[in-house]
TrEMBL record:
This is L-2,4-diaminobutyric acid acetyltransferase. It comes from Zhongshania aliphaticivorans. Its EC number is 2.3.1.178. InterPro entries: Acyl_CoA_acyltransferase (IPR016181), Ectoine_EctA (IPR012772), GNAT_dom (IPR000182). Belongs to the acetyltransferase family. EctA subfamily.
Length: 173
């Protein structure tokens, strides 16, 4: 038993969170591509997320390998709201609570000091994301409200499922 616990602790100790850099852009693109049903953005788009939004984005790495990423930014018209663009976790890390730990890391960032709300969009059938954000709201002791924001026909020409806008908050920092 002790060996098993020690191995678990050693594995957990190698996981670290940090701000992304441009050097993470390509690895992020590959991680997203290997994680359906996520939308694969261009490498250039990921480079912008890793640089322009580095203060509100989170890289999770284990032994130097990118195993998780959250792309997020403060909404310009709502400086008290952080918008989570995308959450991705490597297959090897799923089911371990990594996504929720990264969300908590986002709101602890100095750039989020004034943030009281988190928003994101999720397709109605993405059960894993719904469970993640409901659990996150519960952990913060706050509400999660949602409504359809972008509609399949009106906004995506029938080529993409509708996206629900979720709003979590208010929460204390």
């Amino acid at each position: 038993m002790l060996k098993s616990n020690s191995a678990t602790q050693a594995t957990a100790a190698t996981l670290r969170f940090r701000q992304p850099t441009a050097e993470d852009g390509y690895a992020l693109n590959q991680l997203v591509a290997a994680s359906p049903p996520l939308d694969t953005n261009s490498v250039y788009c990921n480079l912008l997320h890793c640089t322009h939004f580095a203060e509100t984005a989170v890289v999770a790495e284990e032994d130097g390998k990118l195993v998780g990423f959250i792309s997020a930014h403060i909404i310009p018209a709502k400086p008290n709201t952080v918008f989570v663009w995308q959450v991705v976790v490597d297959k090897s890390q799923r089911g371990k609570g990594l996504a929720k730990k990264m969300l908590k890391e986002v709101i602890k960032r100095p750039a989020c000091a004034q943030v009281k709300y988190m928003e994101t969009t999720i397709t109605p059938d993405n059960e894993a994301s719904w469970a993640l954000f409901r659990s996150f709201a519960r952990d913060l002791g706050t509400e999660l409200n949602h409504s359809i924001w972008f509609e399949k026909e009106a906004h995506f020409g029938g080529q993409h499922d509708s996206e629900a806008l979720l709003c979590i908050g208010p929460f204390a920092q």
